[in-house]
Amino acid sequence: xxxxxxxxxxxxxxxxxxxxxxxxxxxxxxxxxxxxxxxxxxxxxxxxxxxxxxxxxxxxxxxxxxxxxxxxxxxxxxxxxxxxxxxxxxxxxxxxxxxxxxxxxxxxxxxxxxxxxxxxxxxxxxxxxxxxxxxxxxxxxxxxxxxxxxxxxxxxxxxxxxxxx
Length: 165
Known about the structure:
By secondary structure, the chain is α+β, with helices and mostly antiparallel strands.
């Protein structure tokens, strides 16, 4: 009978240890889950903050160009168009340099083959010259690529060979 009591006591102690281990593991699991959820929230917050201010560097480059445009307009002289035009050309060059430095490429497909990945045909014009078929006749609006990805296709008029019966 003593053996049965000892076995029951040992079983009871063993069960108690198992229960404590389960409680400890459950606590650690809940703590790890809470830490993970907090990390997710913090990461989402940091990402939102990054996105919010991602363009601040670009803005700092564009602001001087904007200010130069305003200054050009303020100093525009009705009798001296040449100086004003020279200033505007300078501002445009500033913009082009900023775009280039930030990975923007201009799509200006004059005299090139129509490419639907980079061009949007807004009009077609017939031609009898077979060599001009599917070539760009006119660029209505230039397009832009950012890091080799088209963000705005060039709007173009495309030559289409006139079919004669």
